[in-house]
Amino acid sequence: MDLFAQRVAVLATMHRKEEAIAPLLQAELDIKTIVPADFNTDRFGTFTREVKRTGDQLAAARLKAQAGMQRLGATLGLASEGSFGPHPAIPYLPCNRELVVLIDATHDLEIVGYDFSIDTNYRHQVVDSLDAALAFAQQAKFPTHGLVVMPTADQPDPDAMAQNIVKGIVTESALRDAVQPLLQRQGCAHLETDMRAMVNPTRMQAIARATQDLIRKLRCLCPRCGTPGFDVGDRKPGLPCGLCYAPTALTLTAVYQCQTCGFTQDVLYPDGIELADPAQCQYCNP
């Protein structure tokens, strides 16, 4: 069954995320996307920390989508939310976890597409000279990617610090204008990459990949009731070692589950491999 063709979805964004999301949904699922005018998503949290994010990553995206739906009286809503930080297994590598959530009030569905990548320019640094600021900018893919300049975090007045945050810096002259007053006033400045989508093409690509994952899930129908979003709900370890055949921690079975009727289906070897590399075996490689 096609629940989404020729429907209109409200995309809650103020950072031009429709550029990554809308063309894919239109081409692949015939969903038309509209963006509410003057819709402030910063109230749900900002990367520059003036506003603490509302709940976790998914909760914030959900609230944005619901607010957009309420604004325009729509039954289909979309929102995305990004998270940046050290890689969970390789701490010195920065990573980006991106999600795009679709909420369908008509059919009581919530389906989420994800992307996880180390392809990000996310970084930050305190500099004490203009030369250091320019060197940081070069490493951060500037000027195709925007920068943020602010006072250092140890300033005594948080409100004053927030008022001095300069975002969306995409020219060298603007970078100089933002950094020099801070250097003169306090001898240093905090620089970080601007992770908002409209000034970060690398992040925009991650949002597009998360949208593609959402589309994949929307096309995956429950074998029992036909509801979209039939996807992996759990993974069971036990993939045998290719040398000694002992079970490893790698996935042997993926359990697909329908969020509507609860039907589950086990799928062996979901990652396309039937034997694990002995390097992953606790017996062959203790």
Describe it for me?
The protein has helices spanning 18-29, 57-72, 130-139, 158-163, 172-186, 201-219; strands spanning 8-11, 32-34, 76-86, 94-104, 109-117, 124-127, 147-150, 166-169, 189-193, 231-237, 251-257, 264-268. It is α+β, with helices and mostly antiparallel strands. It folds into 3 domains: 8-120 and 198-219, Alpha-Beta Complex (Maf protein); 124-194, Dna Ligase, domain 1 (2-Layer Sandwich), CATH 3.30.1490; 232-280, no CATH class. A hairpin with a 6-residue loop joins β11 and β12. The longest helix is centred in the C-terminal third of the chain and has 19 residues, at 201-219.
How are strands sequenced across the largest beta sheet?
2-1-3-4-5
The tally of beta strands, per DSSP, is 12
User: Helicity level, as a percent range?
Assistant: 25-40%
Shape: flat
CATH fold assignment of the largest domain: Maf protein
Q: What is the CATH C level class of the largest domain, in words?
A: Alpha Beta
> What oligomeric state do these chains adopt?
single chain
| Radius of gyration based on Cα positions | 22 Å
Q: Count of DSSP helices?
A: 6
Low-pLDDT residue spans: none
Brief descriptors of the model:
12 strands; 286 residues; Maf protein; Dna Ligase, domain 1; 6 helices; flat; alpha+beta
How would the blueprint of this fold be written?
Layout: E1 8-11, H1 18-29, E2 32-34, H2 57-72, E3 76-86, E4 94-104, E5 109-117, E6 124-127, H3 130-139, E7 147-150, H4 158-163, E8 166-169, H5 172-186, E9 189-193, H6 201-219, E10 231-237, E11 251-257, E12 264-268
Parallel strand pairs: 1-2, 1-3
Antiparallel strand pairs: 3-4, 4-5, 6-9, 7-8, 7-9, 10-11, 11-12
Helix pairs in contact: 1-6
